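Closing statement on the zinc ion sub-project.
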Amino acid sequence: MKRNGRGRTELFRLRSKVSRQRSAISLLVLLWTSTALAQTPLQTYSDAFILQSRRTDPKIDYTVTVRGADRSAYYVEMRIANPPNPARLVIPNWAPGAYRLMDSGQNIGAFGAFTTAGDTLPVTRDSDISWTLDTRGASSIVVRYSAALPDPVQWHRPNNRWFLRATSGMIDGPRTYMYLDGWKLTPAQVTFRLPAGWRIGTGLVPTTDSTTYWAPSYDVLIDSPVLVGRFSTYRFTARGVPHRAVVDLAGATQGPRVQRVFVDMLRRVSETAIAIFGNAPYKDYTYIFVAGRGGGLEHLNSTTIGVTTDVLARNPGGTESVSAHEFFHTWNVKRIRPAELGPFDYERPVRTMNLWVSEGVTDYYTEVILSRSGLSSAADFNRRMSNAIGNHRGNAARLVVSPERSSWTVWDSPEVNNSYTISYYLQGQLLGFLLDLAIRDSTDNAKSLDDVMRYLFDHYGGERGFTTDELRAAIRSATGPNFQDFWRRYVSGTTEIPWDEYLKAAGWSVRFSEQIAVDARIGSITPAVQGGRWRAVAVPGSAAAAAGLVTGDELVRINRRVIVDGTDVTAAVRAVPAGGAVTVQVIRAGQPLTIRFAAGTYQQTRAVLTDLPDQTERMRRIRSGILAGSN
Ligand SMILES: [Zn+2]
C-alpha cells in the first residue's frame, strides 16, 4: 500500500516528463518503463501502451560517431529540442557498479553549443563535470563534444568498459553521454555513425532504423553499454526469453565446439538464475564479451565481460564464474539494491553499508548457480567455499573491518582502516553461505536464502531500494528467524565466525591448518583516478611492509612487470619463489622510489570442508537444498 502510493508518484513524474512518443515502439517503451519501475503497477489499461508528456518538454537525441581511422575519441552530438534556459549539461563522475570517481570531465574535449542555424551559444564550465549554456531562448540547440579515450597504450588489452581499437569499440554510457540536469527521466534516442561493416550490440531498444536505438530515460541509456565493430552473435532462449551473446574476439575465432559449449554454459547460467526468482525481469538480455583484460560490469539487461582471447577462444569454462556473477546482478543490485544506490546521484560518491549484499551475496550465488546448473560439481563447491573460508580466516582484517565497514569505506584509501583490508566480496560470499545455512537449519529446510532474495525482489526491486533495517526485516518476514544477534556479531561486528555451529546443519565441519607460504604479499587497489596507477596496499606484517612499502604507493613495476591493474600484481607476486628478490618501483608523493626485499615466509591459513561422520537425512536434505535447489 505504501509502495503503491510511491509508485503512483513516480509514474506520474515519469509521465509528465517524458516527451511525446507516438510510434510503433511505444509498446516496447512501456515494457521498458515497467522494467525501469520494476514492480510499480500500471494505473489504467492505457498505461500499457501510451506515454503522455507535455509538448513543451525537452527531447534529446544523441549521435555517437567513430570517425574514419581516428581511434582517439568518440564524437558526440546532442540535439535538444525545448531546452530549458539556462541548460546545464553534466557528465557523470562515477558509474553504478564501479564505486570510484572517474574524473570524467577530463575526457571531454572540444565542447561547443550552437543554435540549429549554427550560431555559437555562450557556455560556462561551472565544475569539472558540468557546463551551463545560455540557449538565448532557442527552441532547439546542438551540443558537440569529444569523449576522448585515455591512454591508448592499453587498448591492445582493453578492459571491458570503454575502448576503441582497430576493429571494435565499447561505448561506456557514463563516460560518453551527458545528461540535461533536471531531465534524467526524459527518453533519449541514440544514433551510431560507424566505419563500414561495423555492427552494434547493446541492450538498448532497437528502432526501425538499424543505427538508432531508444532508451526510456537517461539512467537506462547509460546503463546500456554498446559494443560496436566486427563481432560474433549467438542467440539462445532461456525460460522462453530471448538471450544472446555478442563476442568481440578482436580477430580471433571460436571453433564450433567451443561455441557450443560456450552457449550451453550461458543458457544454463541464465535458466538457473531465472529459476531462483521465477521469471526474468527483462524482455531480452545481452551478454557482451570482449577479448582483453578481465573484469565484468552488470547492467539492466546486459553485462560486459572482459576475458583473455585465449580463454574466450579455447576454454569457455574460464568464463563460467564471471558470467554467473554478472548475470545474478540482473536481480541483486540492478533491481534489489541498497536504498542509497538509486536514484543515482552521478555528481558525487554514494556510500552504502550493504555492498557485501550486492557483491558478496552475488558471489555466493555464483557458486550456487554453477552447482545447480551442473556446471560445477559438489567437490568444486566444497573446494571454492573452503578456499574462501581459508582466505577469510587467514586475514587479520576480518577481526578489524566489518562487512558493513568495508562496504562503507569502498571510496576511501585503506588507510582509513589502518591498512587493514578485507574484501566485501569475500565477506558477503561467506555471510550469504552462513545465512543460507542458518535459515535452512531453523526452518527444517522449508525456507532458504532464495526466499529472502525473492522477497527482496518483490519489495525492493522497484524505484526504491532497501535499508539495513528493511533487509533484516525482510529476512524475518520471508523465512521466520530473527537475525538481530547475527547482525551485531558478523555484519556490523567483527566477531570470529564459529563455522562449525553453522556448517553442521548441512553435515560439514571445517578443518583449519597452517602451511608455510612465500611472503611476497602486496595488496592492490584501483587507481584514485581513472587512467591513474593502481595503488599498493601494504599488508600488515608482510615482508613488503617491513621493507617500506606504504599503502597508497602508486605501483609502476614489480620485478619488471608493468602494473596496469590488479591482475598484474597478482601474477607478479605469484611468480616469486621462496627467498626470491622482489623489486617494487612506485611513485610516492610524485617521486619515483624503489623498494627491494627478499620474499620471506608466513603461515598461510587453509580451510577444508569435511563431512561429519554421522550424516543425517536432514543434513543431506539441507546440503541438497543448497547444491541442487531442492527444498
Ligand atoms: Zn559484481
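The pocket of zinc ion is lined by residues 298, 325, 329, 359, 362 (CB under 6 Å). With this model delivered, the sub-project is considered complete and its resources will be redirected to Aim 3.
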